Each structure stands twice: as structure tokens, then as C-alpha cells.
Amino acid sequence: AEKQKIGEFDSQKAETNFLGRHWIAWFSSDLPFSDGPYKFKNLPGLITEIQDSDNNYHFTLQGFYKISDKEFVPEIFKKVIPITKSK
Questions:
Q1: d(CA 67, CA 74)
Q2: How do beta strands 9-18 and 21-28 pair?
Q3: Is 26 buried (19+), middle (13-18) or exposed (0-12) by CB count in 10 A?
Q4: What is the mean pLDDT of each run of 10 residues along the chain (87 residues)?
Q5: pLDDT score, position 69
Q6: Distance of CA 15 to CAs 9, 22, 56, Å?
Q7: How far is CA 51 from its chain centroid?
Q8: Is there a contact between 36 and 12 (Cβ–Cβ < 8 Å)?
Q9: Residue 52 phi, psi (nearest 5)
Q10: Which residues of the chain form beta strands (DSSP E)?
Q11: Fewer CB within 10 A of the end CB, N or C, for the chain?
Q12: What's the pLDDT at 13?
């Protein structure tokens, strides 16, 4: 039920234990992406901030912007190279 503003986004608190650490995350359902930094995802919104309880790791959303399809897919991924199982 805890909420606070992270940057320009209203965010809600979530906590978990993962890989031997206790993590505190803040996510915003204003951003309909279930994603975040490192291996953190699947919350009902974008993770705007996450840190471990010992303060060894701390990630904060710095911003985002819309990019065109051309920018999003590097040229190397647009080229298809057929490969057979023997190759």
C-alpha cells in the first residue's frame, strides 16, 4: 500500500528476497511495461527504482523516450543468414 513519487511517476512499493538479498522495488502502473533493470520484472508496471536492503545495489529510472523503428533494430539484426543444422 506504500506509494511515493519517483521522478515524475507515482510509484508503489514491492519487496522480495532474491539471490540472498532483500530487495525493495518501486513500480509505476502508469507505465504499462512489466520490466525493470537486471533480472527484475513481472510487476504490474515499470520498475522506477530498486535497491537491496544493504544499499550495495541501487537502480533508478533516469528517463525514457520513444524511438523510431529504424533506431530500435540495429542493421545487423535486419540481415537474415540461413544456417543449417550441420553448420
A1: 12
A2: antiparallel
A3: buried
A4: 93 95 95 88 94 94 70 62 74
A5: 57
A6: 19, 7, 16
A7: 13
A8: no
A9: -85, 160
A10: 3-6, 9-18, 21-28, 46-52, 58-60
A11: N
A12: 97
- The answer to whether the CB of 3 falls within 8 A of the CB of 13 is yes
Report how far residue 6's alpha carbon sits from residue 24's, in angstroms, rounded to the nearest whole number: 13
Cα-based torsion angle of the residue sequence 15, 22, 19, 33 in order, rounded to the nearest 10 degrees: 30
* Total residue length of the chain: 87
Return the sign of the alpha-carbon dihedral for residues 70, 74, 77, 80: positive
Dist CA 10 CA 37 (whole Å): 18
What pLDDT is attached to residue 67?
63
CB atoms within 10 A of CB 44: 11
Tell me what pLDDT residue 33 has. 85
Alpha-carbon gap, residue 33 to 25, rounded angstroms? 15
